[in-house]
Amino acid sequence: MEIIFTSFEVELNYDYLYIYDGATTTDPSKLVATYTGTGIIPASISSTGASLSLKFTSDGSVIRQGFKATIACLGNPAPLITNLSPLNGSVNNAGTTDLILTFNEVVNPVAGKFIEIRTVGTNALLEQIDVGSTNITGGGTNTITINPSTNLPTGDNYVLINTGAFQDIANADFAGLTNVNDWTFSTRSINFDGFAGTALQLVEPTGQLGAYAEVPNNAVFDLQDEFTIEFNEPSLPFIVKDDNFITIIMPIVA
Predict the structure, then answer these.
(1) What is the C-alpha to C-alpha distance for residues 215 and 201, in angstroms, rounded to an integer?
(2) Which pLDDT does position 75 carry in this prediction?
(3) CB under 8 Å to 122, separation ≥6 — which residues?
(4) Which of 22, 95, 131, 135 could form a disulfide with 151 if both were Cys (CB 3.0 to 4.6 A apart)?
(5) What's residue 98's pLDDT?
(6) Residue 179 is part of a domain; what is its CATH number?
(7) Which burial class, exposed, middle or buried, applies to 14 when counting CB atoms under 10 A from its CB (0-12, 13-18, 19+)?
């Protein structure tokens, strides 16, 4: 929205016009202009959202011509992202992390639009999420949380979001994320899936194989996690191996 003044004449220092960016005149941080006096034509003012608010005060003792202005609707600006988590280009994020988008205004998800998480380089699809699903929360606020159905594997990822996947309260469409470089980040995790029941085979000090400690199915340990393995007797080092890591665990010998 834009207001364009064609004349302005009020009593100097007694009559004031206050202009606010938004739908309120009670928030001082939204005040963008204050005008008083004669012989001036105020500059045009455009809103950052869908509204401007005007407040005029007068002492009522001196009469002037007042002011004239044209108000034009410029079209509703589309919602914009102000922050991403993980940050674009960040590294070593936990594979269990949620993906969070912060917008400059309140938005709502649009069912039937999709978010895709893919692998950089191969473009392999890790997950496709309908924006209308329960994996997406935060509708009606300016913060949207994406909770992938599975933990992200170790690697470099990027996120694509359909145009129109989110709309503001005036139904203006979010432009989407359509380029590989719009939101990329890496995740690092050690995945013990496939070692269930056999991964932690212990070697006793005598060299005899001991009982194994069973690893739960789908167990994933992020690099940011801390965990402790306890043994009922001293044992020698053993090795856990997956496609990305070889971890040597050295138990403390009592």
Answers:
(1) 10
(2) 66
(3) none
(4) 95
(5) 94
(6) 2.60.40.1220
(7) middle
Instruction: At 82, give phi and psi (nearest 5°).
Output: -105, -15
180 and 225 co-located in one domain = no
CA distance 234 to 184: 45
- In this structure, the number of other CB atoms found within 10 A of the CB of residue 244 comes to 12
Find out whether 98 and 143 touch, Cβ atoms under 8 Å.
Answer: no
Tell me the three state secondary structure of residue 182. helix
Range of 244's domain? Answer: 191-254
Peptide bond into 205 cis (omega under 30): no
Ranges of beta strands (E only) in 73-124 are: 81-85, 90-93, 99-109, 114-119
Around Cβ 37, how many Cβ atoms within 10 Å?
A: 15
Residues 234, 230: Cα–Cα separation, whole Å: 10
- The H or E element containing residue 7 is strand 2-9
Number of folded domains that form the chain: 3
Residues 53 and 19 sit within 8 Å (Cβ to Cβ)? yes
Residues 148/136, Cβ–Cβ less than 8 Å: no
Task: Indicate the residue type of 187.
Answer: T
Cα angle 124, 246, 206; round to 5: 150
Mean pLDDT by 10-residue block, N- to C-terminus, for the chain (254 residues)? 91 95 92 92 86 92 91 80 95 90 95 97 96 96 96 92 94 92 84 40 42 44 45 48 43 41
Spatial CA neighbour of 114 closest among 160, 148, 151: 160
Tokens representing 107? 């938005």
**Would you state the pLDDT for residue 197?**
36
